[in-house]
Amino acid sequence: MTMRHIAIIGSGPAGYYTAEAAQKAFGGDVRVDIFDCLPVPYGLIRTGVAPDHQSIKGVSRRYETVALSDNVRFVGNVSVGKDVSIEELQGLYDAIVLATGAPKDRDLGISGADLGNVFGSAAFVGWYNGHPQFSALDPDLSGRTAVVIGMGNVALDVARILSKTPAEFAGSDIVLHALDMLEASNIDRIVLMGRRGPHQIMMTPKELGELGKLERASPHVQRGDFPVEEEDALLEPGLRKSVTVLRQFAAIPEDIRAEKPVAIEFAFCAQPVEILGENGKVTGVVVEETEVVRGRAQGTGRTAVLPADLVIACIGYRSVPIPGVPFEEREGRFANLDGRIMPGLYAVGWARRGPSGTIGTNRPDGYSVIERIVEDAECGGLGSGGKKGRQGFDELAEKRGLDVVTFRDWKKIEEAEEKAARDGAPREKFVEVAAMIAAKR
Ligand code: NAP
Which of 59, 106, 118, 195 to mutate to test the pocket of ligand 1 (most atoms within 8 A of CB)? Predict the structure, then answer.
């Protein structure tokens, strides 16, 4: 068989599952290079999954097995589009798979969204997870009220992280700068704001249930916000379970709730229409009451001002377009049919389907995109082979003086992070690229 060279751009779950699938499909006749703009691998496993969800992060061990095999290579600290162009990679590799995820926050699109202490979840989650791009975010946690917009699992992560005690972070890999600031935080009211009702939340039951087990925070849900209980039976099972958890929260007696100093309030049928500020910093959110009509939120025109010291919009993400690659603006993802952008160029994971699904959803995605590549190889869509692949890239990298981070280098960085860990923590992450590079030396 012809040797095939595949470049995967992005080393998160979608990237590694695609590499695994390529090994299975092509056996010894494939060489895979997995590029990442950061010197460290695993994408959202490292910088997205909540630091107190270590069991989820454990999936990276599976990716390590793939990474350590002979025909797969990690090419870290190389930014495609900056250090090397897609066109250059197309000249070197038979197939390029964009596994770049959706790293940009979806726009709130209301006035005041650019005020100080208003953040998107990519930035805020990146801050407490030590993403170098956001580690200097420096949110002001000295106020009392945080408004978290959105009713998905990211909103839950953010509300939970904002309300945990230092002791509850034991065993997590939350970065020190965030741990220190959260310890000194004054926030005691967190409003989770959903533009639709309890029957339209995107939160999954296990993650929602965690809000009921916090040391100093209690969920506040109003009984009057629910439709009649019989209607729960019409919901799909996962959502029905989440609604059951919400109903249990609503049944917590007021005096029990009041025992905990931090309130996590659920505000349903409430959409932000403007963010107010003073001296460039947020002071409140103008909230419009909505009605859910045929599943969609419709404004009623009735508004009220909710005071706010911190606003975090957890309303989803967008991929970042790459010049020359067709992009669906509205959906915020690459234009593709079943992962194929065009023969030789593919998208997988959030870059293919938009920001939804769990880590596991990326596995079938990775296997499916490799099926497209096999089809294209078989019908001649990838040319007759003979491209230079990794050898060609290495020549280019040397010519450009790129400081490429290999998987072996990453293991050194990882070792240094593990050595620096606080008591009981798995690691203390480097939060700056320069520190990561220094550690590999
Ligand atoms: P999500 O599940 O799509 O939730 C986004 C939320 O934002 C929805 O409630 C949505 O409301 C709301 N929203 C969107 N645009 C809005 C606007 N303009 N104004 C007000 N609200 C708006 O997204 P996510 O929370 O970012 O999660 C992304 C994916 O990662 C999901 O599949 C999630 O399950 C997964 N994830 C999983 C875990 C875990 O398993 N532990 C943790 C984190 C993330 P509408 O529904 O009305 O549009």
Answer: 195
